[in-house]
């Protein structure tokens, strides 16, 4: 743990009083990986609603080949929540973290895939027969269905396993997640935002329309140089083709049972706002009795080009209330903003007053430690969120 003192005098008592409240996080990508590993030490009743619109890396190859939702962010969160104190789970975590070589002929890489699926492979040494069979079945199935020209270079074994489980189970992403949640003994729950095949589209202030999550994050292509004015879902990855998708029932049920709903740090549009684009999500959040907490980014996010902290807050509210009756209180979708003390000056006195009039509280706590700077200390943030329940 990166700190020894409580954030405030009542924190330990408040956490102890609510040992296992139900927490919900809207996220994607890798921003919450470290936090998730810390959170599972304090609470195992947390649910991660994960975006399925990633369009970069090896996920893009799987999506294009099988017209499927993205699974890379799901794999990442599965590994973060895995109970790797168990030797067999730690072994499965290592397997799912493996990748094919970055270079090599198609034939050589395919031979590697068949080798991975063979029972004699040393990576299975610590697994039970059932665990081994599950992973072997996924890899063997995948090896037999991919087209001859499928590019295996740098492809994640974990993504391959999840993709195969998804296809084997009649294209049920929830079924695939359940299989590997069990194998990895995860502490928490993972819920996909949708099983649908769709993509993220963004409209910029300079008139551009960009389709594809990977074109926004600033990781695989140059960062955007114009402010995002709107994002929406597209049925095509090549051009804008607007599509409406209903919020899945398991997402609605998860929100209904929550005691705290968190809009956490991460890519603002492609990890957070994306999760709020399905029909009915705003209403479900507003009807939940949970506290709704926004934890803004501390460091520069390419997707927040041209945006202040207050801009992020108002944009979040815009998407949360988009389809709600105007009589619905704003505080029903956002009740608290959790700020590190280093960020408190990013809001003006007038903005603090405006938030107060909306019924939105701002809590300022020391959430960054010397060890974690410039990022949130995952232990401090975990305890701070639990103290709000």
TrEMBL record:
CDD domains, sorted: YvcK_like
Single GO MF annotation: LPPG:FO 2-phospho-L-lactate transferase activity
Domain of life where this protein originates: Bacteria
InterPro entries per record: CofD, CofD-like_dom_sf, CofD-rel_GAK
Pfam family of the protein (one): CofD
NCBIfam families: CofD_rel_GAK
Name of the molecule in the record: GAK system CofD-like protein
């Amino acid at each position: 743990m990166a700190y020894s003192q409580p954030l405030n005098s009542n924190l330990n008592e408040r956490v102890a009083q609510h040992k296992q409240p139900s927490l919900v996080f809207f996220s994607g990508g890798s921003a919450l990986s470290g936090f998730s590993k810390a959170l599972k030490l304090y609470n195992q009743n947390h649910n991660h609603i994960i975006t399925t619109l990633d369009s970069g890396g090896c996920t893009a190859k799987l999506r294009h080949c099988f017209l499927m939702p993205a699974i890379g962010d799901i794999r990442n969160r599965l590994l973060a929540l895995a109970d790797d104190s168990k030797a067999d789970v730690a072994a499965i975590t290592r397997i799912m973290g493996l990748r094919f070589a970055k270079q090599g002929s198609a034939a050589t890489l395919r031979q590697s895939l068949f080798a991975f699926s063979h029972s004699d492979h040393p990576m299975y040494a610590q697994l039970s027969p059932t665990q081994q069979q599950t992973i072997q079945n996924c890899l063997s199935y995948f090896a037999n269905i991919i087209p001859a020209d499928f590019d295996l270079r740098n492809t994640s074994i974990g993504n391959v396993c999840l993709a195969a489980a998804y296809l084997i189970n009649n294209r049920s992403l929830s079924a695939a997640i359940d299989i590997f949640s069990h194998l990895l003994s995860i502490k928490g729950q993972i819920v996909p935002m949708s099983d649908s095949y769709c993509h993220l589209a963004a409209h910029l202030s300079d008139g551009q329309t960009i389709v594809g999550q990977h074109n926004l994050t600033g990781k695989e292509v140059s960062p955007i140089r114009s402010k995002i004015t709107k994002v929406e879902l597209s049925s095509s990855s090549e051009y804008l083709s607007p599509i409406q998708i209903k919020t899945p029932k398991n997402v609605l049920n998860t929100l209904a049972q929550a005691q705290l709903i968190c809009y956490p740090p991460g890519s603002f549009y492609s990890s957070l706002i994306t999760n709020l684009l399905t029909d009915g999500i705003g209403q479900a959040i507003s009807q939940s009795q949970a506290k709704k907490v926004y934890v803004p980014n501390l460091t520069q996010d390419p997707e927040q080009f041209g945006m202040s902290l207050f801009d992020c807050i108002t944009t979040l509210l815009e998407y949360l209330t988009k389809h709600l009756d105007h009589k619905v209180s704003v505080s029903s979708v956002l009740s608290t903003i959790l700020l590190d003390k280093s960020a408190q000056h990013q809001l003006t006195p007038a903005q603090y007053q405006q938030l107060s009039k909306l019924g939105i509280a701002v809590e300022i706590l020391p959430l960054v430690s010397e060890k974690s700077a410039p990022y949130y200390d995952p232990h401090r943030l975990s305890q701070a969120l639990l103290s709000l329940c």
